[in-house]
Sequence to fold (353 residues):
Amino acid sequence: MTARLAEMFRMPQHLGHLTSSGTMANLEALFVARELSPGRAVAFSADAHYTHARMCHVLGIEGLAITTDDRGRMDVQALEAALRAGRIGTIVATLGTTGLGALDPLPEILAVAGEYGARVHVDAAYGGFFALIADDSPEGVASAPFAAVAQADSVVIDPHKHGLQPYGCGAILFSDPSVGRFFAHDSPYTYFTSDDLHLGEISLECSRAGAAAAALWLTLEVLPLTAEGLGEALRPGRSGALAWHELLRASDALAPFQTPELDIVTYLPTRDSISQVDAASGSVFVRAAAAPPSEQIHIATYAATAAQFAARGLAITPDVPSGRILRSVVMKPESGAAIPSIHARLEELAAIP
Ligand SMILES: Cc1ncc(COP(=O)(O)O)c(C=O)c1O
Fold:
């Protein structure tokens, strides 16, 4: 199965396996990072998943958060300034941040990492499968970050996100198969019936459900990792996100926070100050869900800082350090048709003073 994922990223060779989650997969990547660059820090963007700071803590590695730009992507100049200090051994680039769906500029990150001798790990847990529609077309996504994955040292992708799997299915791929040496172990009860590499020899986790692998195999038989296969299941979400963004641009009651790079749409009730945006977002969030079951709308919130509002040119008074905005993922192919009515209802709720 990992061979198919590696092929999707056009990795010439790999060592990889399925994991029980994106967290476990990233833990393995950071474990290998620590073994290869002992005593050196791991840098990730301020908008990276919290798992990176947490796993750095678990592994006893220094974690450094790098500021993001006006699109929520790692700021390469800030990264370079941090690299100059000489402590960074590994950079984590996120392809599809959990909050905003931003794509860190991987080609530029690889270039600067090369200059300073740092390794690059890609956390594509959320966005990895968008590689299938990374064709720069109107319903596709940007090709450059995904084309660069093959040059990174490792990549995490979660089939239990856009790979249509139930929970329990992440994956880690390393571009250098020799990192398997860090997983070497011996025990009196370990025995092998063949000379092939066994899962226990290349993963941190021991027992795991085989059902996750079987389910992924079946899904990929039906929807192969091609633009016409699983890619066709991703395009409607991407188009739906762009269509919703256009509705938000034309709206008086709601405003877009930023242009979606994948299928995550971020928006806010039109208000004058961050505290008012926060209160209105909280109220829309609660009211949208408080309806009879067939009319409920479940949205999410994202805590944006005053600097993030300002970077996007939103003329909102920064009376408090941060405030909640609203966030929706157009993940199901059939969601597209419902967007106009969802948007209209959220506009009504946002207009309530
Ligand atoms: C970018 C990213 N990395 C890592 C994770 C953690 O993955 P999991 O919840 O499978 O442990 C997530 C989960 O949302 C994610 O979006």
